[in-house]
Amino acid sequence: MFRGSMVAMVTPMFEDGAIDEEGLARLVEFHVDNGTDAIVAVGTTGESATLDYDEHCHVMRKVVEMACGRIPVIGGTGANSTWEAIKLTRCAMEGGCDAALLVVPYYNKPTQEGLYQHYKAVADAVPIPQILYNVPGRTACDMLPETVERLADIPNIVAIKETVSVQRAREIIERCGDRLDVYSGEDGVSREILLAGGKGVISVTANVAPQQMHDMCQAAISGDRETAEAIDARLAALHKALFVESNPIPVKWAVSQLGLIGPSIRLPLTPLSEQHHETVRQAMLLAGVLE
């Protein structure tokens, strides 16, 4: 349904933690101007874990309003409570989002049947297109390919963001690539997933290097390995540097270095440690996003 580089956009904040709406507007314009193919609002990188329900819905609505139909907006609406996920997904739909991204329920560690029933319940309750999101490193629960294959039969489940490995992504493409789009959730391996038949990446790196990520994705999706590898080689250090501390700590600092937002982040996350500043800065220089 969506193709290319989809930014997992940061949520700008003031020092007191309040949402910076002017900063939010600057980010939307930045992505429209620099080729980003879709915006994910209030995903993990957007600090969904520390925004309350009203803030969550407000940011999704504001991004839709600011995008004004120029770029698709996907709302991050996952929760470890099925009821809460339904409520957030309904909010995304009513706020004008083009789709919803739902992370695997975290902490409570459901069974594979529980995962199936969770996603089915949300899809049955809210008719907006929905994207599954499997990230066991954060959720402590791995949604297996056979469960994804079952969910692919539900009409408004349209894609999955997969983070486990290139091999896992290939298996899902083989099982249900004709019914479900597969997106990379890891910038460092996204090129290979796209060359294997994936349709895009939900990207942290695109916060900092949106045009380069767009160009790399277009090359890889079209099968132009040489061009995709050349672009990705310049981004490799950035893919790595943006995870020197927990996401979104490094990327929020990096976006602040572009002058688009301030570096503030909500507890329990803290600003990027000074010892990592030069590592991230050098990666940005290599990527060509700083002079």
UniProtKB/TrEMBL annotation:
<dbReference type="InterPro" id="IPR020625">
    <property type="entry name" value="Schiff_base-form_aldolases_AS"/>
</dbReference>
<dbReference type="InterPro" id="IPR005263">
    <property type="entry name" value="DapA"/>
</dbReference>
<feature type="site" description="L-lysine inhibitor binding">
    <location>
        <position position="106"/>
    </location>
</feature>
<keyword id="KW-0457">Lysine biosynthesis</keyword>
<feature type="binding site">
    <location>
        <position position="202"/>
    </location>
    <ligand>
        <name>pyruvate</name>
    </ligand>
</feature>
<dbReference type="Pfam" id="PF00701">
    <property type="entry name" value="DHDPS"/>
</dbReference>
<feature type="site" description="L-lysine inhibitor binding">
    <location>
        <position position="80"/>
    </location>
</feature>
<keyword id="KW-0220">Diaminopimelate biosynthesis</keyword>
<dbReference type="InterPro" id="IPR002220">
    <property type="entry name" value="DapA-like"/>
</dbReference>
<feature type="active site" description="Proton donor/acceptor">
    <location>
        <position position="133"/>
    </location>
</feature>
<feature type="binding site">
    <location>
        <position position="45"/>
    </location>
    <ligand>
        <name>pyruvate</name>
    </ligand>
</feature>
<keyword id="KW-0963">Cytoplasm</keyword>
<comment type="function">
    <text>Catalyzes the condensation of (S)-aspartate-beta-semialdehyde [(S)-ASA] and pyruvate to 4-hydroxy-tetrahydrodipicolinate (HTPA).</text>
</comment>
<dbReference type="InterPro" id="IPR013785">
    <property type="entry name" value="Aldolase_TIM"/>
</dbReference>
<feature type="site" description="L-lysine inhibitor binding; via carbonyl oxygen">
    <location>
        <position position="49"/>
    </location>
</feature>
<dbReference type="InterPro" id="IPR020624">
    <property type="entry name" value="Schiff_base-form_aldolases_CS"/>
</dbReference>
<dbReference type="GO" id="GO:0019877">
    <property type="term" value="P:diaminopimelate biosynthetic process"/>
</dbReference>
<dbReference type="GO" id="GO:0005829">
    <property type="term" value="C:cytosol"/>
</dbReference>
<comment type="subunit">
    <text>Homotetramer; dimer of dimers.</text>
</comment>
<keyword id="KW-0028">Amino-acid biosynthesis</keyword>
<feature type="active site" description="Schiff-base intermediate with substrate">
    <location>
        <position position="161"/>
    </location>
</feature>
<feature type="site" description="Part of a proton relay during catalysis">
    <location>
        <position position="107"/>
    </location>
</feature>
<dbReference type="GO" id="GO:0008840">
    <property type="term" value="F:4-hydroxy-tetrahydrodipicolinate synthase activity"/>
</dbReference>
<comment type="similarity">
    <text>Belongs to the DapA family.</text>
</comment>
<dbReference type="GO" id="GO:0009089">
    <property type="term" value="P:lysine biosynthetic process via diaminopimelate"/>
</dbReference>
<protein>
    <recommendedName>
        <fullName>4-hydroxy-tetrahydrodipicolinate synthase</fullName>
        <ecNumber>4.3.3.7</ecNumber>
    </recommendedName>
</protein>
<keyword id="KW-0704">Schiff base</keyword>
<comment type="pathway">
    <text>Amino-acid biosynthesis; L-lysine biosynthesis via DAP pathway; (S)-tetrahydrodipicolinate from L-aspartate: step 3/4.</text>
</comment>
<feature type="site" description="L-lysine inhibitor binding">
    <location>
        <position position="84"/>
    </location>
</feature>
<feature type="site" description="Part of a proton relay during catalysis">
    <location>
        <position position="44"/>
    </location>
</feature>
<keyword id="KW-0456">Lyase</keyword>
